[in-house]
From TrEMBL:
Keywords: Elongation factor, GTP-binding, Nucleotide-binding, Protein biosynthesis. The keyword Nucleotide-binding applies. One of its GO terms (molecular function) is GTPase activity. Residues 57-235 form the Tr-type G domain. This is Elongation factor G.
Length: 248
């Protein structure tokens, strides 16, 4: 029996980089949740089924090897440890992705750690020249107080932050202002789909880096991450292939 052909627009080839331990845990979670043995995940978002192919460089990979993995990637998921005080390796990977205009999004992990600092993660990403960090989610507390994640896209449009709305308002304003600065629109005219489209366009153009928060350690929920990979990172059809070919 022949293999079913997959339309390239429904494919996402993603490389997981960043904090070595966090990247390894994320790869293992994907395999555990989906029983994936070939690092391929089937995921339905917005009414369409997508194929997400995941690659993860070895924890022991040299910087030169990591640079090549990033250069040839269609898109990358950068795992950032919120409890890490310093991450020079992460800085290097972010700069390589920026230099080669590789679309990326960041997943902040370790928010339940005693030294977790979400704002520090944002500053680390902001200090990398080029794309600006854009929080799509923020944590409810950190350390022992970490109790979950607020989805700012929904909160900005639907006011769905519940009892944490006040603390999320600053982030919601920053989200809307960033996404509408070059194409102004009245906030009450925005829809969730509008925001998704704006995030996708600016992520693929290298203007922004969407920031997501990992769920509490007791949860294996990675639905928001997979939704973001499908919605915002490019398919092979969008990536400038000739530049990638030169890297092989």
């Amino acid at each position: 029996m022949g293999t079913k052909a997959i339309d390239p627009q429904w494919i996402r080839n993603v490389t997981i980089i960043g904090d070595p331990a966090g990247a390894t845990r994320l790869t293992h979670r994907l395999r555990r949740c989906f029983g994936a043995t070939d690092d391929t995940v089937r995921w339905s978002t917005d009414g369409a089924e997508h194929t997400i192919r995941v690659a993860a460089p070895s924890n022991e990979a040299l910087i030169a090897d990591l640079e090549r993995c990033i250069r040839v990637a269609d898109g990358v998921v950068v795992v950032v440890d919120a409890a890490a005080q310093s991450a020079p390796r992460l800085d290097t990977m972010l700069r390589v992705a920026d230099d080669h205009q590789v679309a990326r999004l960041c997943l902040v992990t370790g928010l339940g750690g005693p030294t977790a600092d979400f704002d520090r993660c944002i500053r680390t990403i902001a200090d990398t020249r080029g794309a600006a960090p854009l929080a799509l989610q923020v944590p409810v507390g950190t350390g022992d107080d970490f109790g979950g994640v607020i989805d700012l896209v929904s909160a900005a449009v639907l006011g769905a932050a519940g009892q944490h709305r006040e603390s999320a308002e600053r982030w919601c304003r920053a989200l809307v202002e960033t996404l509408t600065e070059s194409d102004p629109v009245k906030p009450d005219c925005l829809t969730v789909r509008d925001l998704h489209n704006r995030i996708r366009g600016r992520t693929r153009n290298g203007d922004i880096v969407p920031i997501l928060c990992d769920a509490p350690s007791a949860s294996d929920d990675i639905a928001a991450l997979l939704d973001a990979v499908v919605r915002y990172l490019p398919s092979p059809m969008y990536v400038c292939q000739p530049e990638h070919v030169l890297d092989y």
